[in-house]
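Note to self: keep these together.
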Amino acid sequence: MKYKKIVKGKFLKRINRFVAHVEIDGEFHVVHVKNTGRCKELLTDGATVYLEESDNPSRKTKYDLVAVRKGNLLINMDSQAPNKVVGEWLTESCPWGKPTFIKAECTHGDSRFDFYVETEEEKIFVEVKGVTLERDGVVLFPDAPTERGVKHLNGLVKLIDEGYKTAVFFVIQMQGVKYFTPNRETHLEFANALVNAAHAGVEVLAYDCIVQEDGFVINEKVAVKL
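Structure:
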């Protein structure tokens, strides 16, 4: 996945979930933050950030904040990007066999799942979660309570009873981590739902990514500790 035009900036302040102040080439800018999570450990005073410049003259903000440097890590924090890279990955490297059909944002029952995939032997629903929270090499999800995430996990379990294969795919938006684990401290209900889903047969996948300033791609499988 590639962005069109990336510029480098210095993070100043987050105003709300959607808006931040950033310095770019010595000038002050109001920018759109493409992640509604807390991201407190990422968006720190003076942090180096990377922004995609919009070519839409009618936009209120000219830039989207999409990545940040945290120590030696370059972390993509665009919450829309994981679905894009998983869509590319499924086309090229689907783990369940060559796909004959892929549909994004597929509604089934009272839930909408990120992907529905068919191969010659399987029918699979896939839910994607982007991971940006890192502590001492360990990555965790979520960084804020997510009732929607709990609903999706429970929905994947129900789909198994209907004969489908299901998976939750944690896209770790950085490289070089130790392992993935659910964030019990932040949302115990989600952590418990993930454990229950895994026991019910939902496949739990976690992959890190090769992240560059102008985009990223799925890289290698990461150990999951539930």
